[in-house]
Amino acid sequence: MAEFNTQPPPGEPPVLTENAITILQSRYLIKDEQGNCIETPAQMLSRLASLVAKAEIKYGATESEVKTWYRKFYDLMASLKFLPNSPALMNANRPSGMLSACFVLPIEDSIEGIFETIKQTALIQKAGGGTGFSLDRLRPTGDRVASSGGTTSGPISFWRVFSETTDAIQQGAFRRGANMGMMSVEHPDILKFLHAKQNLKAFTNFNISVKINDDWMEKLLEAGNSSHIVINPRTGHRYLLPRRIDIGRYAINDLHKLTDEPLQSSRQANQFYTVSDIWKMIVKCAHRTGEPGVAFIDRINHDNPTPSLGKIEATNPCGEQPLLPYEACTLGSINLTKFVKSDNGKKDLDWPALAETIKLAARTLDNIIDVCNFPVTDTIRLSQANRKIGLGVMGFADCLFLLGIAYDSQQGIEFGESVMRFINKSARDASHELANLRGPFPNWNDSIWRTERNRKVRNASITCIAPTGTISIIANCSCGIEPAYSLVFIRRILDDLKMLQINPVFKQVAKKRGFYNKKLEEKILRAGSIQKIPHLPGRIRKIFKCAYDIKPEWHVQMQAAFQQHCDAAVSKTINFSEKATVAAVDKAYKLAYHLGCKGITIYRRHSRQSEPMTLY
Q: Residue 171's pLDDT is what?
């Protein structure tokens, strides 16, 4: 343990809830060999703030200035106005030293390349990072392997090895390993990929998304009856997918290889899957289990800040941070509830205070890049050359509660857009200031920041919206930009620990209005909603709506509002009731495309047996 950890923290300790303390003791605080916590939450923040402040030395700070920054960084986090991603809190000034949450690794089409990436995955996940992969480069099932004269077992079989690797190392990690698996809709094994997680016991440590390009979506929206064409990544040969193939077992030789000769008749054409067929398959699978999600890959690459370095092929596990192969990113989120103020009875955000916090948070994340011990050598080079950070928000739903704005209203959508517009502009201004002090990110000269935006910034990508699962528990606020799951619910976390969570804003308002009691708490815990509790004021029911009270189209509109002013992407789940139809999911996926989202993930209630947030 670092020397300063035996000394008092430089400021006031954070004010934490019982749930926050429980999760910190379970997963974050330093323990002795017997498993007893030997660190306080304040000391945890102190060791991180101290390490982040030491990065200032690289840029000419004196010993006195480093101490000043140490206090500033500590106060920022201890106030719970801002928290970085979990690995930073867990690993600062500890043997691992890995502070970033998000990584994307390439999977090359060779045994050596595949197993090198598996090794790198193990190193990253052992330290608490999450990994994303594209399976596009792997040759399809049954394709020729020249070195052995045999054929390959295909992407799904190798993907399974990645999943088992995560399972094998998670016992020694601070949290469960998380992955993102992505495949182009044009890969020959796409049918297998789409159905891989319909078995709810398979690939449980992976989220999956199918990558769809704009041309494919336009074909779908025009008519959808054109044949779906897949391409062998090894040879470039194009194929059609016969309807008669066994989805779980087919190989490349079972497909219809396209030549210059057109299909002889419409009857012959009908023997193959169309674009519309594949889309229906995606939507039906998502309706059944919540997966796959969809990533609109051309839209993602349109905002690729360094296209000269290659195309973005995958994202981090929750989808908010598209990254190049071997890129990493550190995330951090601002707690919006800390900036709600009342002036002569009128509530609004304290915009100047928010701007100051954004500025300091951006500096915190930039410093973390310099003091992070990246476990994979190639990520050191690219992370320091592009210096991507992911500054976002948490507590948005609680912020709306405090302001008396309904999530599912035009006012709510407009407020969300205005918040993200302000954060994006302020964060870019902060990155510009850092570039003037420290220089722009090393790859700036070949980036769109020079060629298109004509602005020096310290970080190639600056803003994104993360899910903030555990750090929002620490900060005692709602997750990311999600609506509250319920005003009272049970949360399950690592080791099957169960915690009762009561929305602090609702409890405060209900007590003030005189209608809060244990009986109401139990009613909400059973129902998950206050919409059918008749004695509650109508205004209260209108404002305090939760995830399943809100129609899916409002969820999508809110995601799109934040995406408009976001460098990277937005992690958001579109919630559906248990009785939602496949057609409703289809509508939401298409709406996400029309509104400019970079991807979409949906979840229909109770479509899986185990859920992290539950009621009685």
A: 47
**Which residues have CB under 8 Å from 490's CB, separation 6+?**
498, 499, 500, 501, 525, 613, 614, 615, 616
CATH fold of 102-309 = Anaerobic Ribonucleotide-triphosphate Reductase Large Chain (3.20.70)
Q: How far apart are CA 334 and CA 358, in angstroms?
A: 8
As a three-state string, the secondary structure of 23-48 is HHHHHCCCECCCCCECCCHHHHHHHH
Distance CA 415, CA 271 (A): 50
ω before 292 within 30° of 0 (cis)? yes
Is 164 one of the catalytic residues? no
Report pLDDT for 2: 42
Collapsing DSSP to helix, strand or coil, 37 comes out as: strand
The token pair that represents 27 in the structure block: 């997963």
Closest to 309 measured CA to CA, from 445, 428, 117, 108: 445
pLDDT for the residue 614: 87
Nearest to 483 by CA among 607, 606, 575, 560: 575
pLDDT tens, residue by residue, 229-283: 999 999 999 999 999 999 999 999 999 999 876 665 556 668 999 999 999 999 9
502 forms beta bridges with 488
- Asked if residues 12 and 74 have their Cβ atoms less than 8 Å apart, the reply is no
Q: Cα(11)–Cα(81) distance, rounded to whole angstroms?
A: 15
H helix count then E strand count, the chain: 22, 22
Q: Is 320 a catalytic residue?
A: yes
Return the residue matching tokens 């039906």: 284
Confidence (pLDDT) at 7: 65
CA distance 198 to 53: 47
Active-site pick, 316, 459, 476, 503: 316
Residue 326 in tokens: 């071997």
Q: Which residues pair with 272 in a beta bridge?
A: 242
Marked catalytic residue, from 85, 102, 179, 318: 318
What is the distance between the alpha carbons of residues 77 and 338, in angstroms, rounded to a whole number? 12
Is the distance from CB of 355 to CB of 81 less than 8 angstroms?
no
| Maximum alpha-carbon separation in the chain | 81
Contacts for 579 with CB less than 8 Å, ≥ 6 apart: none
Task: For residue 462, give the 3-state DSSP assignment.
Answer: coil
Domain boundary assignment for the chain:
102-309, 469-614
Query: H or E stretch including 102?
Result: strand 102-104
The confidence score (pLDDT) of residue 236 equals 96
Give, for 86, the enclosing helix (H) or strand (E). Answer: helix 86-91
Residue 96 backbone dihedrals phi, psi, to 5 degrees: -65, -55
Predicted TM-score (pTM) of this structure: 0.96
CA distances to 51, 140, 297, 319 from 279, in Å: 48, 21, 16, 20
Annotated catalytic, 316? yes
Task: Show the tokens assigned to 13.
Answer: 């300790």
Q: Phi and psi dihedrals of 394, rounded to 5? A: -140, 170
Length of the chain: 616
> Alpha helix (H) ranges present in 55-136?
63-78, 86-91, 111-126
The H or E element spanning position 501 is strand 497-502
Which of the residues in the chain have pLDDT under 50?
1-4, 171
3-state secondary structure of 174: coil
Pick the catalytic residue from 56, 291, 313, 320. Answer: 320
pLDDT at 598: 98
Residue 455 identity (one-letter amino acid): R
- The C-alpha atoms of residue 224 and residue 170 are separated, in whole angstroms, by 43
